[in-house]
Amino acid sequence: MDGFEFNKIAGAVLTAMLVIAGGRTILDIALPKHKAEKAGWALPITEPKKKGPEIAKPFDVAAVLSLLPNASADNGADLFRTCLTCHTPDKGGPTRVGPNLWGIVGRKVAEAPGFNYSSAMKAFGGEWTWERLATYLHKPAEAIPDNKMVFEGVKDDRDLADLLVHLRKLADTPAPLPK
Questions:
Q1: Angle of the 130-138 helix axis to the 157-169 helix axis, nearest 10
Q2: Sequence-distant (≥ 6) Cβ neighbours of residue 165 within 8 angstroms
């Protein structure tokens, strides 16, 4: 068989395939479409409940402080893991991006040795009371505008109480819980 014979056979096969595919396309275009009588299977589709705009409730420090007696220090330790990126919890531990948090409850604000605090934090002054810590850890950017901490905050009141109880343990003598 010479090359010309092979070309004729290949051309015939390709032409047949073109006629089959083209004929199918022409029939799809020319004939009217019809819908199936019923679906092959029924999907259980439920409409999502429409919510109105969610109104954020204002932060209530008293509500968080009322949760402290029953808060879980173990859950607080789990939540504190995210803080370990910037802070150390060890007595005499080094400062990192943030100050060492040993003895934070009752400590003066912006007074951890070896850490360069922002002017906003220095101007805040006072001591880290339960109320101040809860407010600050809820939304640091709102509690002390222009501070260096980029953490968004702990939104859930129960988690915040757990974290505060864990921070309480980071001291030689843990601070008493508020009444």
A1: 130
A2: 68, 71, 72, 73, 76
Average pLDDT of span 114-130: 93
Domains delineated in the chain: 61-169 (1.10.760.10)
Q: What is the pLDDT of residues 42-95, one digit of tens each?
A: 667 777 777 766 666 788 999 999 999 999 999 999 999 999 999 999 998 899
| Residue-level pLDDT at 119 | 93
Question: What is the rounded distance in angstroms from the CA atom of residue 102 to the CA atom of residue 73?
Answer: 15
Residue 8: which residues within 8 A CB-CB, separation 6 or more? Answer: none
Q: What's the whole-model pTM score?
A: 0.68
Q: Cα separation of 10 and 33, whole Å? A: 35
Residue type present at position 43? L
Sorted by sequence, the CB contacts under 8 Å of residue 147 that are 6+ apart come out as: 118, 120, 121, 124, 140, 141
